[in-house]
Specification:
Helices cover 42% and strands 19% of the residues. It contains 9 helices and 9 strands. The chain is elongated, with a radius of gyration of 24 Å. The strands form 2 sheets. The protein has a 5-stranded parallel beta sheet with strand order 2-3-1-4-5, with helices on both faces. Helix 1 (16-25) crosses helix 6 (144-155) and helix 3 (67-79) runs parallel beside helix 5. It starts with a strand and ends in a 5-residue tail after the last strand. The chain is α/β, with parallel strands linked by helices.
Length: 284
Amino acid sequence: MKPYVVIITGMSGSGKTTYLKALEDAGFYAMDNMPIEMIPQVLSHILKNNPEMDRFALVVDVRDEGFGEKFPWLVQELSSRYKTHVVFLDSVDEELTRRFKIMRRKHPLENGRGLREAIREERKILEAARKFAKTTVNTTGMGPGSLRERAIDLHLQGITKRIVLMSFGFSFGIPQEADFVFDLRALPNPHWDEALRPLTGRAQKVKEFLLAHREVHSYIKALQSFFRKTIPLMFKDGRARLVLAFGCTGGRHRSVFFVEELYNWFRKNWSDLVIEKKHREEPE
């Protein structure tokens, strides 16, 4: 499947940064105000080195000199390689004027002219860009929260949601990509059994050792209850990928066991999600 690229443009002060941030929080790779002529090359470079990336969002507007002439080329160039969606954000002039006064920053075209004149000039430049928009959003009277919800509803429909279960050892540091970290170090440790020490949490003898302890069962049930309540909320908030990290001291026994157990549970109970597992200290 081709990578999905959202091109965000529109009037200055219409909420493009808020829209971009909503998609970034949802797992999109975000770029703001990158020179248009560089964008195709940068995307190719990113995908070459990170082929697993499949969602990008970028803001381009009149801050880029020559925007009116460059924008049609950009849309054509990206559409030939990726699945693209152009979003145009707009608002009435009075609203834009009010927002600039509240923010106390200058309009990018305001040099040598007043704010209202700068807004009129920007509308002229953006006339051609508006024609390429698949979606136009009028943000007049719309707060940041509502705009964020609009972005999530529009671009996360049909996107596969993933849960990554990761085991790790606290001795080697907490994984930076984790959304949740669960500490298993208080549970019985197979490491202190010399017969189990060379094994991992995937070994049957290690599983039997851990399942012989009541607190392990209680911990598993508590996690399952927690996930039933929180996973839907996390995805509703706009996330498309969650990394759940489970750590023990060395990342070989308890953490691996928990990932394997929960991997099977998630696959059985969450058929609408893609479930992945990763053992950081014990690569499969």
